[in-house]
Amino acid sequence: MVPSVAALLVSHDGGRWLPAVIDGVRAQRAPLTAVVAVDTGSKDDSPDLLERAFGDVLRVSGATSFPAAVGRGLERLRERGETPEWVWILHDDANPDAGALAALLAAAAEHPEADILGPKLREWPSLKRLLELGVTISGTGRRETGLERGEYDQGQHDEVHRVLAVNTAGMLVRRTVLETLGGFDEQLPIFGNDIDFGWRAAAAGHTTLIVPDAVVFHAEAAHRGVRRTPLTGRHTHYQERRAALYTLLANAPGRRLPWLVLRLAFGTLLRMVGFVLVRSVGEALDDLAALLSLYSHPGEVRKARRVRREQPGADERRAAPLLSPWWVPYRHGLDFLGDLVAAATNQAQDVAERRRAAAAERAPASYAPRPGPEDDDLLAEDTGLVARFLTNPVALLVALVVIVALVAARTAFGSVSGGGLSPAPQGVGDWWRLQVETWHPLGTGTAVPAPAYVLPMALLATLLGGSPSAAVSAVLVAAVPVGLWGAWRFLRVVGRLVVFTGASRWVLLWGATTWSLVAVASGAWSDGRLGLVVVAALLPWLAHAALGFAEPAAERRWRAAWRVGLLLAVGSAFAPVLWVLAAALGLVVIGAAALVVRGAVRDRSVWGPPAAALGLVPVLLAPWWLPAIQRSAAEGLLLDTGRLPTPTADTLDLLAGRLDGLGAPWWLGLVLAVLALLALLPRATRIPVLVCWVVALVTAVLAALLGAVTFDLAATSVDAGPGVLLLVLQGTFVVAASIGAVGLGVETIAWRRVLSGVLVVVAAAVPVGGVVWWLGSDPAIGEGIETDIPVYMVQSSEEGPEHGILVIRGGVDEGLTYTVRRGDGVTLGEDEVTNLTAEDADFTAEVRALVSRPTPEVVDRLGASGIEYVVLPEPADGDVAAVLDATTGLVQASAEKRTTRAWQVDGPLDGSLLEGPVSWLRVVLLVVQGIAVVVVVVLCLPTTNPRRSDR
User: Fold this and answer.
1) pLDDT of 371 above 80
2) Angle at alpha carbon of residue 922, lines to 918 and 924, rounded to 5°
3) Per the domain annotation, does 108 fall within a domain?
4) What is the DSSP string of 641-663?
5) Which has the closest alpha carbon to 157: 120, 110, 103?
6) What are the TM regions of this chain, as residue ranges (predicted)?
7) Quick count: other Cβ atoms within 10 Å of Cβ 839?
């Protein structure tokens, strides 16, 4: 006996799909007892189409929900006196295959226990991409289909099996079951009612099957935002998310409800962060609004749970095996991070790919380009990953370079200090406090702001478990591998820009390795110049981002502006001279553009992005730059970071890439300069090499100007920081030499082969010599910083700023100098503050009086200034020691070395003089900085459309 089936088709403004859907319904090979069409206030010709096709059409208002429309359809069947065994529910954008209903009925006959059956859903109009083969829901409310994103139908899932729920687009359900369960929940007007219904059906003991032989093509018009209804409005994602949360809370077991409430609240915050990272701020707000809407009306959930408890025969344990596994949300999180990283790393080479494709079109028909790295990947597509790695000499050498770099950086593991690197503070809280304080209890107290690099270092230390030492080690250890990665990506894109064949992997290997060793060969790494090490690793990434200014699309150029601005701000936080150089290069580029392409200067989308990138840096670093100028510490804007004295560099040092007295042998750097000069010979790449030399010329001119600047600080006189300029100059030489090698590879002149052989040998000596020198060097960062202060005094000073130690060095004949130690001493971040703090004339007068004509009042004022101990490190000047021995109020204290003398202030200690006023300007700037950083990071991230995968 053929079962009776009534089709129930719900429509709303579906005129563009209905003709095909109507044809699909009419073409069914299984007979239909009746067809009921319900139109919910369509404004197009949907009612007319339905009326012509099926006769009677039930017209209801546009505010009618999908559950109500289905309910009205069932009422119409009862009014007609029709009691079909099955109800086949269809959407106006769901076109059934001719055999869909027959396949569903055949499965129902084969599985008499089944009460709900659903078809395989494929995407319309692509027809081949799978959408759903049954659905379930995860513990975070995500709609789970069990399919890969974009998976095509190749018969890989063609087995009838049990599922939690099936989509209402094509759902075949027993009429009695639909009526017994009360139909679909009115609290789910358009989304999520299928999962809720399936969950309730499973709890009631009903079986839901997916029938892959039945195929329905679904356009998903409401989900994709193709059409809007009064029920979805403009915020489709809000409706979907609210439905998911409601479904979970209404159906979850009671024992899990408290945990689920907390999990969904916390998960919503994480989802919001994820949406912000892909620049979907609207969906992030929709997520929050959905959570607040549901949590502010708990009565809705309580009522729904009561209804489900009162359902006859309901047992929530029956549905548990059909829910998504607990680990699925974590897998999705990893997938999201992978997608984000892939999108961020792949977008920047778009311009090179287009340039390469355009050049290939212009190439002679007989030209066959040699395989590049990607071509090798395609050729080896069917081989295993390990086999491809082991048979790729370049990959093996890259791995070897990274391993050797990690071995050479062994000194940086653990807590390091020495040379120009101050010790890291004990906890990350010290860095955060230094960042937000407007007055620092250092020395005699200072309002000089914390250096800008404290913020990124504090963030890194927080991510690494709150250990500043781990953050410093991570920077020093990862600098070379990170620089290698960035240089490889940058040189690969540049190679494709200058020659459509691109650079060979051997050129990329040489250029990336050499560039990554610039900070090491210069001596910055071994001397602990953290700022220069960070900039060296960051430079290729910054140059890579700057290539986005050449994008043909204005939108991409503006996105490049935010990325360049953020990277430039991070680099300038560690080495402020970098921004000065960027501004100088920007002026040169604008001037050249005004002369060569005058019309381009009038286009704001051409000069606007570079200008915005430059202007963004002062905004992001305003909490340091503006207060520094205000507190007469503007010298910090032109100094290298680190302990004084900072290394210098003359003309030969700049060419050789070596800081004065530091670094690898000077001839390695000069070889690099010679290679950059020889890179001018190949004609094919002469213009881009000339561009590199223009950058080098601007850098050299700026270095000459800054070389004439000297700053008189309280402790010593120092020259303006040349370190960044030295790094940029060497990086420019590497790029020029790499481009020249690419050009040499396409030259056809007779002497090319001989010259290539000589240059390969000479060039290989640069990175090899740098690595060998690094392995055998003795870095200063492993030596530590010696102190002549007894341990018990150091421990006392850590109890509070009022337990300071006055350290007096020198002698009466050559002159005396003093420093004040508080807490755990001058740590990383505090050294710049103390370096730029002007001399306290009043306290200097007190110290002068102490060592010449001390009085009890002078000692009392020391105590009031928070000085507990006075120390004369070895060799202590006898005349000064005799004066202090005879001073009333000073008690001799023990010292670890006989030649070191120490005294304790015998009187009350007071740290109140170390307290200073709050700078509300800096507080406002810190707030602005925090907001600006979040906004810029979001603008930098790639834009994705998570709508398809977020269901």
Assistant:
1) no
2) 105
3) yes
4) -SSSSPP---HHHHHHT--TT-S
5) 120
6) 257-278, 394-413, 442-464, 471-491, 497-518, 530-550, 562-595, 607-626, 664-682, 689-711, 723-742, 754-775, 920-941
7) 12
The position carrying tokens 């043909």 is: 552
User: What pLDDT is attached to residue 947?
Assistant: 46
Percent of the chain with pLDDT over 90: 47
9 and 115 housed in the same domain: yes
Q: Are residues 134 and 40 in the same domain?
A: yes
Nearest alpha carbon to residue 887 among 864, 866, 870: 870
pLDDT reported for residue 229:
79
The predicted structure's pLDDT at residue 96: 96
Q: Which helix (H) or strand (E) holds 719?
A: strand 717-719
Q: Are residues 763 and 892 in the same domain?
A: no
- Cα angle vertex 240, ends 238, 245, to 5°? 95
Integer Cα distance of 641 and 653 in angstroms? 19
CA distances from 280 to 284, 347, 564, 566, 938 (A): 6, 18, 21, 20, 9
Residues facing residue 119 across a β-bridge: 211
Say if residue 697 is in the same domain as residue 812.
Answer: no
Phi and psi for 641 in degrees, rounded to 5? -80, 160
* Mean local confidence (pLDDT), 650-665: 87
pLDDT in tens, 178-208: 999 999 999 999 999 999 999 999 999 999 9
State how far the Cα of 514 lies from the Cα of 484, in Å rounded to an integer. Answer: 8
For residues 747 and 796, membership in a common domain is answered with no
Asked if 807 and 818 count as a contact pair (C-beta separation under 8 A), the reply is yes
Q: For residues 938 and 279, is the Cβ–Cβ distance under 8 A? A: yes
- Residue at 223 is within a domain: yes
Within 211-349, residue ranges assigned H as helices are 236-251, 257-277, 281-295, 298-309, 328-346
Q: Are 808 and 816 in contact (CB under 8 A)?
A: yes
Q: 175 falls in which pLDDT band (50, 70, 90)?
A: very high
Residue 899's domain spans which residues? Answer: 791-914
One domain, residues 196 and 172: yes
Last residue of a domain, one of 711, 740, 775: 775
Q: Find all residues with CB under 8 Å of 930, minimum gap 6, and list them.
A: none
Domain count, the chain: 3
Nearest partner of 562 among 542, 534, 576, 577, judged by Cα = 542
Confidence at residue 376, expressed as pLDDT on a 0 to 100 scale: 40
Which two three-digit tokens encode residue 587?
């002026």
Question: Does a structural domain hold residue 291?
Answer: no
Contact 199, 135 (CB under 8 A): no
DSSP-derived pairing of the beta strands 867-872 and 815-821: unpaired
Alpha-carbon radius of gyration of the chain: 36
- Report yes or no: 456 and 463 within 8 Å, Cβ to Cβ: no
Q: Residue 94: beta bridge partners?
A: 218
- Going by C-alpha positions, the residue among 571, 576, 838, 585 that lies closest to residue 721 is 576
**825 and 767 together in one domain:** no
Q: Tens digit of pLDDT for each residue in 7-52?
A: 999 999 999 999 999 999 999 999 999 999 999 999 999 999 999 9
DSSP-derived 3-state class of residue 231: coil
Q: Is residue 251 part of a domain?
A: no
Listed residue (898, 849, 839, 893) closest to 869, CA to CA: 893
Kindly state whether residues 696 and 826 are assigned to the same domain: no
Q: Of 721, 742, 775, which residue is a domain's last?
A: 775
Q: Are 26 and 35 in contact (CB under 8 A)?
A: no
- DSSP-derived secondary structure letter, 423: P
Of residues 544, 533, 542, 425, the one with CA closest to residue 478: 533
Query: What does the alpha-carbon distance between residue 780 and residue 538 come to, in Å, rounded to a whole number?
Result: 23
Q: pLDDT tier at 726 (50, 70, 90 boundaries)?
A: very high
Q: For the domain that residue 36 is a member of, what is the CATH number?
A: 3.90.550.60
CA distance 339 to 333: 10
Q: Which one, of 614, 638, 612, lies nearest residue 625 by Cα?
A: 638
**Which tokens hold the place of 307?**
């209804």
